[in-house]
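[job 0412] stage=fold_complex status=start
inputs:
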Amino acid sequence: MTNLLEKNNLQDQLIIKDILSGKTEEFRKIVDRYKNMIYGLVLKSITDIEDAEDLVQDIFHLVYQNLKRFNLEKKFHTWLYTISVNAIRNHLKKKRRHISFFHNSDNAIDSIGKDDNTGQNKIFSGEIKKNVMKILSQMKDKYRIVLVLHYFEDLNIKKIAEILDLPDNTVKTHLKRAREEVLNLIRKNPESETFFKDFCTF
Amino acid sequence: MKKNYPPKDDKKLFESFINAGISIDSNVSRSLEDRIMTDIYNKKQIKKRWSLDWFQFPIRQRLAGITAVFILLFAGVFLIRMSSGTDAPFPEGSRLVSFKTSYPGAKTVCLVGDFNSWKKNSDCLKKVNGHWVIKKVLKAGQLYKYAFVINNKRILHDSHANQYVDDEFGGRTAVVFVN
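[job 0412] stage=fold_complex status=done
writing structure:
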């Protein structure tokens, strides 16, 4: 696993060197390698399917613009996460300012499963998305981001602390509170509780 | 002492939530990839996204940046204030004229002349590095008679003036012509 990461990092470095030497087209390789990772992170962190693609686009633009500042001795993977998480935090801050006037998040969550109506599996995957997003959307931003990075992106405490510029112990505390918050939110909503209990036995 | 582990049900429920989250399909459409690349090629500036760029830095770097901006602002304001004391803008057709003299024992030195109707205390000089100095905005193209009043008593002419004219009492008065 470590070797694979090292190999990927070396490949990233070669691609970045090419881009910096003027081969702009090589950036497509970076997009191709990380687009799904960034999209997953963004989608689960902002829980807004409509804004997710736009934010992913902005993040890649930021990455391209700041590529010359990237220290090639460091891991591109971590740098990419740092840029993405800061962009997500900024987006959430802006959204919070507008949410009470313009946005009804319940409607956005309710519409998630409705496009997936072409077959039983797709309906089910739509339901999963809807139920997960419903819980995530009600969480505090700081707990949700730590939870997503640890459980969905499979990053360890040290890496998360580095990305969020927080002490390890703070990350551990956020993670503990995130777990508690998830359980409280599921327990509060009988529909969600039934869904996740059923999913458990699925 | 026994540690309090979460109840088994909670653990299962949480795992179920995580597994459901992991199973969410997060594949990006090809069109997004194209959009990103088109954006890069066009080298568009990200509209109203400067703050996004700013927020990519850790909080410590951001604080250092804000501090630096404040220091520069204060320095700028200070310099502007300093310069406005000496070279304040003055009306068109006027000139800034410096008067400088040295009377080492004097307690006060004031400037009197045609420009202030020879009023004793209207333009007093400041002591800077052992010299008495004052700057006056005077209308160009005119000749002004002037003198210094020492300690609010003695009127003395400027011994270093460029020009002098006869006064009406058989003596001479220093004059300055403003170009």
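[job 0412] summary: Chain A has ten helices and no strands.
[job 0412] exit 0
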